[in-house]
Amino acid sequence: MLRRLYNWTIEKAESPYALFFLAILAFAESSFFPIPQEALMIPLIVAAPHRAWLIAGVVTLASVAGAALGYAIGFLFYDTVGIQLLEFYGKADRYDEFKAMYDEHGSWAVAIGAITPFPFKVTTIVSGLLQMDFLSFIVVSLIGRGVRFFLIAALLWKFGTPIRAFIERRLGLVTIVFFAILIGGFAVLKYAI
Q: Could you tell me how far CA 168 lies from the centroid of its own chain?
């Protein structure tokens, strides 16, 4: 089943709709959705490395647009939607910590959330809740998300062929390692932040 899913994703990378679905995923991930856009971005770049920069640009812009929605959720709908999303990610009871981090580090808190594996949707909702300057929020989000996605694109563009061959030979192992790192990263961040 995993092999079929991988092959399907690789086939769809050249589809005229691939970027559209990736943009929707990136938009949703920045405001509420739990699956990271890299789950689709990486196979798309591996399948079509000549489109790496376009893919990174689409993901960056869609992610920042989704970040604006996350900000609006925190700013306008925290009591109804925002609190439920933060509870889902296990961060609802950490308001004082977030406020202290924003008071002390300001835009750096957003930059860290934009670049690291910390769930960016938590950063966007908290930014709205704490009424961070919206223009600063968007600029820092654009820079942070751009750094993250263009770095991934650059690595895959440069080393894409050997990475693709390795992934295709060891798909099961790569999947296990990817999810172990993803889950481990979230667990470490949950207790560290």
A: 24
Q: How far is CA 113 from CA 7, 22, 25, 43, 54, in A?
A: 32, 20, 18, 23, 23
Summarised one tens digit per residue, pLDDT across range 124-150 is 888 898 889 999 999 999 999 999 899
Helix (H) or strand (E) holding 30: none
Is 75:36 a contact under the CB 8 Å cutoff? no
**Over 118-154, what HEC string results?**
CCHHHHHHHHHHCCCCHHHHHHHHHHHHHHHHHHHHH
How far apart are alpha carbons 28 and 152 in whole angstroms? 19
Helix axes 38-47, 134-169, angle to 10 degrees: 50
The three-class DSSP label of residue 158 is helix
Chain-centre distance of CA 130, in angstroms?
21
Q: How far apart are CA 130 and CA 38, in angstroms?
A: 28
- Parse the chain into domains and list their residue ranges: 2-192
